[in-house]
Write a structure and sequence with these properties.
Length: 423
């Protein structure tokens, strides 16, 4: 693969900042998922600020792809003007990984001696690690997602130049010993929320020399939406509750559907649940008339849906940020979240932009209350809108990253100067 090629970005003439590489397990312009969107948008925003940014990733197609197969050609390409270097994946023991991953997905533990098998057989991309070894010393390295092999093996190569954006959840994976050591060794951890930072403190402690920053992700404010267009397109005349995101047990969509089936049966209200996002979902037959499943819909439809909804429901308990809350508030629509998720609960409490539930009775009561009080619903939506504008405008997020990059470069330069034989 050519290293001196015309597609590689060059730093702006007036920028003293070092070149960057964002290392992700997969990368693409339309990949669903919060971590995927965070990587994509942060990279593009920093490039627009004049920084030399590349993405180093695998040839995998995404979270739900076969991690044994190359979905993209290896080599250098551009994605929305960003140089992206993809490295092939090779043979692995899928059965061994799947058996261990199944236990972790059920919230069960695995024996310490099997942790190496779990991370080693996740996906195998040795050429990516060689590239990091040979070219990472000239860049600051940002690794997205704590649990992926690309972060585990890659961040250990140049730890003093490595920052990890863990997107940490309170889950069985986070308690594996391999991640404890990994997350304590990196130069910096970048959190999406204060609640995520507090979780890291409980699980791993804070090494005194490690940089910790809460940055999160920005929200575009120059977008447009049309509530009436969405209602006309999908023939929706009655109020509806919106769910946006992956439809899977990890996001608690089975719980949402179970609660919704019971709510529709017990209240008899003329209200529907609209689902948008990738993944398979099994809608109970007795709830089918009260659920509209749109699957993976166009981006404009999603924007229009936020504006048209009575409220957004986010039932997940495993969130490090939850971009869908901010997107809903951007359109002035309130939210209902799971009270067992510290991150989304904190967002609601700080914004006064929604309610939360810890049981079916609270779920049903909150939805009925919001539907019956449209003026209060609009007030909560406006409060959420203000919270997003004040805290998650991209200008705010970009400045936080620029300050962190300056700090990281200063630390990296000090480490080199302190190394024997480099003075």
């Amino acid at each position: 693969m050519p290293e001196n090629d015309p597609l590689a970005a060059t730093p702006a003439a007036d920028s003293p900042r070092p070149p960057l590489a964002f290392v992700t397990p997969w990368y693409g312009p339309d990949l669903p998922g919060g971590a995927e969107a965070l990587a994509r948008q942060t990279v593009q925003r920093l490039q627009r600020r004049g920084l030399d940014v590349e993405v180093w990733t695998t040839t995998l197609g995404g979270l739900h792809s076969d991690w044994s197969k190359n979905a993209h050609a290896p080599g250098l390409s551009q994605v929305n003007g960003v140089p992206v270097r993809r490295f092939a994946v090779f043979r692995r023991d899928k059965a061994a990984f799947d058996a261990l991953n199944w236990r972790l997905m059920q919230g069960l533990s695995i024996r310490p001696e099997y942790e190496g098998v779990f991370i080693g057989e996740m996906f195998n991309t040795p050429e990516l690690y060689e590239h990091i070894r040979h070219h990472g010393a000239n860049r600051l390295l940002f690794f997205v997602g704590y649990m992926f092999a690309s972060t585990y093996f890659g961040a250990q190569i140049h730890p003093q130049r490595s920052a990890i954006i863990p997107c940490l959840h309170d889950e069985a994976y986070a308690r594996l010993g391999i991640y404890h050591d990994l997350l304590r060794a990196a130069r910096a951890l970048i959190f999406n929320s204060q609640a995520e930072r507090e979780l890291a403190q409980r699980l791993y402690g804070h090494p005194p020399e490690q940089i910790w920053e809460v940055i999160g992700m920005g929200v575009d404010h120059d977008l447009s939406w049309d509530a009436g267009r969405f209602r006309r397109k999908y023939d929706l005349s009655s109020p509806f509750v919106l769910y946006v995101g992956r439809r899977e047990p990890g996001k608690n969509t089975p719980l949402l559907l179970d609660y919704w089936r019971r709510y529709a049966r017990e209240t008899g209200r003329d209200v529907r649940l609209v689902l948008m996002g990738p993944g398979e979902v099994q809608i109970p037959p007795d709830a089918a008339s009260h659920v509209l499943d749109l699957g993976f819909a166009p981006a404009q439809d999603k924007l229009d849906a936020y504006a048209a909804a009575a409220l957004l429901c986010q039932p997940s308990v495993h969130e490090s940020f939850s971009i869908v809350l901010l997107e809903s508030w951007r359109a002035g629509i309130p939210v209902l979240v799971n009270g067992d998720c510290a991150v989304t609960l904190r967002h609601c409490q700080q914004s006064n932009g929604g309610l939360y539930f810890n049981s079916y009775e609270e779920f049903a009561g909150a939805i009925s209350f919001m539907l019956d009080h449209p003026q209060l619903r609009r007030t909560m939506g406006r409060q959420g809108q203000r919270y997003v504008r004040d805290n998650f405008h991209w200008n705010v997020i970009e400045e936080k990253y620029l300050n962190l990059i300056d700090h990281l470069q200063e630390r990296a330069s000090s480490a080199i100067a302190d190394t024997p034989g480099t003075a």
